[in-house]
Amino acid sequence: MLHVTITLILSLTPYKHTLIIYTLSPQFSLSLFDILSVSLSFFVAMEEKQFHLDEAYYGPSVPPPTRSYRRHGSDDWCDDCGSCCCLISFLLQLIGLVVVTIALVFLIFHPSKVKIHVTDASLTLFNFTTTLNYNLALNITIRNPNKMIGIYYDSIEASAFFGDRWFGSVSLTPFYQGHKNTTILSPVFEGQQLVSLGASDLSVFNSEKSAGVYDINVKLNLRIRFKLGNKLKTWRIKPEIKCDLKVPLSSNGKSGAGTFEATECHTSF
């Protein structure tokens, strides 16, 4: 008689632990019926385990994602579009702000262009050998036609040129020009200056000497600020004023080539 103990252990199904133990104690003999019963129970248990394994298993339930709500604005748009779009957006807003500011200034203060003329010029000496000897006196009028805009002239320098050859500069006293005001500047260029004239420049000089009228260019280098109303002041700007003059040489207050004609100057920023 064969005595045997048969232990079948089926473990770890997807949902629980299953432990099946079949024990045949020594008091019972192992018959064919017993073997068939144990085998049948084994296959049934295996089939049940396979059934559980075939089921979908996802582990512990996952809570649904939390939805976050963002306010749609310029910051979110920048996050989606990138730094390049943000830069373009900033530049467009800056340009819009400048345009609106300029429009408001024009609407409120009605600015008008400052007018600058050389009303008189006296050239009593203009002689060239190896150096240029000169004596030139000018009257320059600056007209501010604005009713609500004053002008601070923080720095004024007048420079004189024959053609493109510089020969003298004069610094003038800074001043404030009020509303609807005209100011007269009187720079005087006097002295001698070493000037290098090429053949073409020397030919032009001799031709003008024969005519008794010289082409002299005067430039005003300014640093100015505008006062809008009573309190608001702008930053400094540096306009350049250019005056193209035809000045007759005079002797004893008389000129054989006629008189000087008032000339309007050109302004650039």
From TrEMBL:
Localization in the cell: Membrane
Membrane topology value: Single-pass membrane protein
An annotated GO cellular component: plasma membrane
Protein's GO biological process: defense response to other organism
Alphabetically ordered keywords of this record: Membrane, Transmembrane, Transmembrane helix
Domain of life: Eukaryota
Positions of transmembrane segments: 87-109
Family matches, as InterPro entries: LEA_2, NDR1-like
Domain Late embryogenesis abundant protein LEA-2 subgroup: 140-243
Any matching Pfam family: LEA_2
Family annotation (PANTHER family): NDR1_HIN1-LIKE PROTEIN 3, OS05G0367900 PROTEIN
Official protein name in the record: Late embryogenesis abundant protein LEA-2 subgroup domain-containing protein
Species this chain originates from: Lithocarpus litseifolius
